[in-house]
Amino acid sequence: MKRKTSKILRSIAAVACSAAIAAVSGLYTGSGILPPVRSFADTQSDLEQKIADADAKIKDIEAKIAAAGTDIESNKEQQDNYWNKLVATQEKIDLVNLSVATKEEEIEAKEAEIANVSLRIQDTEFRIADKEEEIKMLDKQNKDNIYKFGQIIHAMYITDSDDYLSIIAGSADFYDIFVRSEIMKSVKEQNLEFMNQLLNDIEKLKEDEVQLENDKRQLQADKITLEQEKDDLLDEKTELDEKKKYFNDLNSGYWDEYNTYAVRIQDLEARQANLQYEKKVTQADREKAQAALEEEIRRAQERAKNNTVYDTGEWAWPVSPSFTLITTYFGYDAWRSGNHGGIDIGNGGMMGANIYASKGGEVIVAKTTYIPGYDYGMYVVIDHGNGYQTLYAHCSAIYVSVGQVVNKGDCIAAVGSTGWATGPHLHFEVRKDGVRIDPLGVVAKP
Description:
By secondary structure, the protein is of the alpha+beta class.
């Protein structure tokens, strides 16, 4: 008790001494009032606030990264949807293109048929003209022979032949007279054959001409049919071209949508990358603040090591002796894939249970602000002198403040589940000269 009183008196004296020095030195300079000397508690609070702000910012960034990831997946899903539409539409375009090519081949073949029929019609017309010319020539020969025959009849009339009138009376025409007449006996045999052949040739030419005219009419009908078939093919091709244009326009629209989502995804990925970088920078700032806080704690421990009065007795169990279940021990932990810096005491029904100082000392950390799901949550660090400190984490309430001197067994906090915790428990650490050691090496389990 005397030693504790002595420490308090020394503290009061130190404060008085500082005040006296300030009074002697003067509180004013040419530029104004000197800023007050910052205490360790103020520095610690600032650093803790920086860490808390960094944790909050990191959590916000991670939420934005997750949201961007969700948006990326959604946009990729939409992009894939349009890609599937593009593939399906392109297949239809390919089929239409194939149909158009086939139809063009059919039209080309039909045009060839029409050209062939036109040539045949032209050839038939030439042949009809030739037949007509031949008939004309034969007809002239026939008229010449008739004229000659008339001269023969005239000669018979002048010679007063007895039989020519009966021949004329029983004949159908001059040719018949010529053939049936006895007078033909006086005509040379070769002339008779020639005239008969002439008559046969004329008849044959007329028959050929009739056939050619029929052929021409049939070819013209065929040509009309082919031209109608060609027009039908052209109509079908026009429909296919319109269908092709429709699918091409549809495809163009799908490409526009696809590229729109591609740009969105690119922007989101760039945003996500920027957020990742911002998170990395923030984590670096946090680690810097955490390191500064650790250094402040270490310096406080150094300052307190020679001045703090501490118990020389045994260490006390930090919670009620009824809570002895250790859920995680000190050292490597496979679940965390890393080292565990203390022990976790996690009996059922511990929520709100008292946490006791394992040994007497000075409170150097009393953190009451925290980010859910991060770090120690609310925690207390006590310096016991001689390089020893203890840490009590994940508290639901803090009952002490920085600079407060506590005795072994004093209630300093309540068990909770703040920070990164899967349930109510006490995370208890012991540090020697700033290095974590196994708490069970100094604190006996009840």
